[in-house]
Structure of SusE domain-containing protein:
Amino acid sequence: MKKFSWPLLLLLFVVGLLAAGCDKDDDELNETITPVANLLAPAADTFVRLDPPSNAAVTFEWGQARAADGTVVQYEVLFDQENGDFTKPIYSTTSGTNGLETKLVLSHGDLNRIASIAGIKSSSQGKLKWTVNASKGLTVEPATESRVMTLERPAGFATAPPTLYITGSGTEGGTNVSQAVPFKSVSAGVFEIYTRLSAGEVKLIDQTTGTPTTYYIDGAKLMEGNQGTSPTTTPKVYMLKVDFNNAAATMTEIESVGLWFAPQNKVLVTLPYAGKGLWKIENTPIEFFQESWGRDERYKFLFTQKNTAGVSSKIYYGSTNADNQRATASSPASYFFLVPGPDSQYNYSFKFQTEADKKNVDISVKMQADGPYTHQIVIR
């Protein structure tokens, strides 16, 4: 019997392993795939009237691509303008389950944002083209077809900024953007601000991007651009409210803010505007009202306002509670929060501390962006 030396046996063993590895690599490197041959839904020339608040959605579906080695294929859905060729798609995303599913579900909100990227303006119709790429490793196969759909965008902006500021020569912060006054975010895409406006330029800006996006108010509409001018030639205080969801805006003049003294059913004192959403009066006398059952100290605040048509109205800002105990030095901050309430003489009133009777007090009303609307009473 022929004998082999240990070094020779070891060499043969290593050569065998390398050969087996090469065969395995050859199998693994076979990444050939077939392209997606048929798009199933939505149908060609589908029309969709977008309604983002409804949470409606559109499902994109297509036939399977096949890998030569029988392994899984991943899918990417591409969107482009009607005359685009997908070499630089305006938007792309993987399908469901990290690209393994042959369908993709996009909400109307998602499609509204994609339509905006494609240049389709709000309250307008436009066309969008879509297709699917199949891939395995470094191999990418475009589908053999694409489809065009028509989208009608609603009024409003596809994406609302996370924060909003007001700036310009007609505002309290002036033209220095670093001094721009912030809006309060009251709900998704909705902002409001109490501020004084004068003659000059008034712009709304989103500073979260490298280049600030600028908006302005045109009547009852919120518009993108730099054309904003002040609604007044003399200094006046306004409440501005803008809704990016439907591109709406309201501008209400605040004519006065008064301390409403419930037992006398009247404004006891008017608070001067101090600036940037703050009304304040100092060293004003307070005396509770003598009733048969005791001394009444209930109060809230009356805002007198006027809309753009020149019609005046009033709104009470009071407590979240219909009835309250007297305030104390240890009352929580939430006791003083201000919310709009009904036209009622007594309900939803606050109560002065007992120590305030026949004393002078400082009163502040804060309608500012850094927290809940609130007020403060300081007894002198």
Q: What stands out?
A: The chain has three helices and 29 strands.
